[in-house]
Design brief:
Structural class: alpha+beta
Largest sheet: 7 strands, mixed
Order of helices and strands: HEHHEEEHEHEEEHEEEHEHEEH
Number of domains: 2
CATH architecture of the largest domain: 3-Layer(aba) Sandwich
CATH class of the largest domain: Alpha Beta
Radius of gyration: 20 Å
Shape: globular
Helix content: 25-40%
Low-confidence stretches: none
CATH topology of the largest domain: Aminopeptidase
Number of helices: 9
CATH superfamily of the largest domain: Gcn5-related N-acetyltransferase (GNAT)
Mean pLDDT: 94
Length: 350
Amino acid sequence: MVEKSVLLELSRENYTIEPAQSYTIDRFRPEDAHAVARCFYAVYGDAYSVPTVYDPDSLIKANAEGRLYSIVARTRKGDVVGHCALYASPCCEFLFEEGQLVVVPAYRNEAVATQLVRYGLEVLAPRLPVHEVFGKAVCNHTISQKIGVECGFVETALELDYIPESAYRKEKSAAGPVSGLWMFRCYQDAVHNVFLPEAYADILSYLYAAAKRRRHCRLSRRRGFPNTASRAQVHFFGVQNVARIYVQTIGCNFASVIEKLEQTVKKNRSRITQVYLPLGTPSIADAVELLNERGYFLGGLLPRWFNQDGLLMQKTSGRPHFEQICLYSARAERLRDFIRNDWEAPTCRR
């Protein structure tokens, strides 16, 4: 958590970035740290979900240790007018997220965001052990989705209502929770077996074809859980109030493991629960049916999430805000429509 004194200092600065300066897209330098904090504060106030961006010392340390690879749009005066970063995902060392994208309002007509994203993909990613890069494009507008498509990303999942409205309080750019469209770009494919649960086989086949990933796809029907133990763990994301259950192994005690973790989630009062399943498991159809019966519905396909591909399932505490989701492509709209129909199915409305 960021120190209150750091946020207080930013609020008291009342710093204004001079418009129409020339700028350079470059790797982060330690002397950029305070300017990055100013950039995020100018857009989000104190509501951004990653505290590191507000704390210069933490930002410098994260970049020095390789936990974060920041990219900035830096003016000659040293102002940072835009930022994004690459960082490894939690379950696969070869899967990186490109996120923390922000551009101050005065520079949003300068294609800064596109240049930052392209630098990460074309200059920085080839220097890292990257097999796949993904990003989450917000759905209160279509700008970042359009950038993603133009930069070679393919839409594969839709995470509903995961950003609270309060994150957009300063700019008043959201009228409710904001969904995120997951988009993936492949650098080095990994051919492997995947099992498509019968209920989702058609939509997953469609997403695989669009993503042009080489997989040996097999249909998974209910067959009973294997006689092995399930392995799963839950992580909480406080600002979003989201619980994420990562399932490494689907075994005979899957139902009791999910029940126990959901009790922990309930105590934490999370408003959204997500379950990440490995698609390399033949019994995934059994896992999906059990989750459907507990109110979960489809989120989408996550290439290389566990090094093998993953399946996102999700459950919201109330009715999802489908009407507020803005989408750029027909593919994303088809995915949203499937997810909405899945949410409306009787087994997912418990």
